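ESCALATION

Customer reports they have been waiting on this structure for their group meeting. Please prioritize. Original submission:
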Amino acid sequence: MPRNKYPEETVQKILEVSMKLFMEKGYENTTVLDIVDNLGGLTRGAFYHHFKSKEEVIDALTDQMFRENNPFEKVKQQKELNGLQKLQQIIKDTTVETDYRKLSGQAVSLLENPKFLAEFIESNRDVLVPAYQELIEEGIRDGSVKCRHPKQIAELFTFLTNFWMVPTIFPFTREEGLARLEMVKDLSAFLGVPLLDDETFARLETVLETAGEE
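Update from on-call: job pushed to the front of the queue and completed.
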């Protein structure tokens, strides 16, 4: 079998086809065979040469899309905002429906797999915590944030927003979800970093209308 001279192109083709199918059919309803059938002549062997499963595909896709649309990098370019406003904008952006948000929602089921859960914890610790900490420290410098221990608060916010509010990890009913949301608002304000303004809180309430257990 001839060696693939352009492995990066093959990987990108697999990711593009998979993204299209996940958006059209949903992750659960898409099979590896579906992906292979849409690769324009590439074989199942070519797929498995680069990915062991469709779980690895969606993991790679969410990672790529986060890097290409990193909300922390985008908000840092908004020089007119202070540190607190940048933090609030990060949370507000989570209420906007984008392909990344849709894909991330589909990928939540992967967190039932210990391997993917461990990778999720690691990425939150190594990527999101420092990103939150940087903005909190900026807020302390410009006076918009009044708090001590920025690193520990960044760790707490990461846990609250990316673990405690994820029903796959901590299941909740709609009413429990709303109570948690109110607690995040109250706790962050108490700590001197009020993440949720009234507009963002209302948006998140709408999101929670369909979250949690039925």
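Sent to customer with the following note: The first helix runs from residue 7 to 25.
Escalation resolved.
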